[in-house]
Amino acid sequence: MKKIDISFILPSNRNHNDFSNRVIENINSLNFGEKKHEIIVVSPNYIQGENVTYIEENHNNRGCVGAYNLGYKKSNGDYIILCSDDHFFDLDSPKVIEILKSELFSNKKFKIVCLPTNHHSSCPLPDYTNVQGIIARYPVFERNTVENYMGGYIYHPEFRHHYPDNWLGYWMSQEGETTIEISEYNMITFNSQCDKSNDDYDENVFKKLIKNYISGYKNYI
User: To 5 degrees, how large is the angle CA 66–CA 220–CA 174?
Assistant: First the structure.
């Protein structure tokens, strides 16, 4: 059996036909060349499809962060691409991993590159961070980076839904490697619904982690 090159992690707790199924079909239609991929779907509802590995998620989960981390633990790919159940990928998106293998990243410790959405320019970190970096939107990871520098977690497990990409962008910048976003490979929103019910909680977690970092605790987790 050929090894897996790319693992897509797709959390979803919404109607399968309207959301995750559309993303699965989109992923399977991408230009992979000789690369082999898998789609790790984490959901409280059973989901199947071509190249899909289903991971059951607790119905009481209050956000996608736990699902991303659970999906990562079950994944096999050398590279990890995060999905949202309301975004399509550009057809050539799998080529983004070649950037992580390129000279641009040859001397970088963190092999992480980010994808923009809807042809929107990069988003700066909040002013209160006092950091010039950008939010790490839809990061693509080399597995060794996650294992060697991030404690084996995609996102900090204290978060529920939003703001973990703020923390990733902040942490990378403070560690000397500002997030790089590649505008060539966009993600396109097909549904604008957005759950903001955990935003206050998640922003408070973000601010706490910043305070801890400034106080001397430099680890990602």
Answer: 135
Three-class SS string for 141-207?
EEHHHHHHHCCCCCCCCCCCCCCHHHHHHHHHHHCCCCCCECCCCCEEECCCCCCCCCHHHHHHHHH
Q: How far apart are CA 119 and CA 121, in angstroms?
A: 6
- Structural contact between residues 105 and 144, judged by C-beta atoms closer than 8 angstroms: no
Domain boundary assignment for the chain: 6-124+134-153+178-194
Backbone angles phi, psi at 173, to 5 degrees: -65, -45
User: Which residue matches tokens 């900090």?
Assistant: 156
Residue type, 50: E
- CA nearest 110: which of 78, 147, 165, 138? 147
Dist CA 167 CA 136 (whole Å): 8
The dihedrals phi and psi of 165, each to the nearest 5 degrees, come to -75, -25
**Domain 6-124+134-153+178-194 -> CATH class:** alpha beta
Q: Is the pTM of this model over 0.90?
A: yes
Those residues of the chain that have pLDDT short of 70 are 1-2, 59-61
pLDDT in tens, 66-100: 999 999 999 999 999 999 999 999 999 999 999 99
| Residue 59: per-residue pLDDT | 64
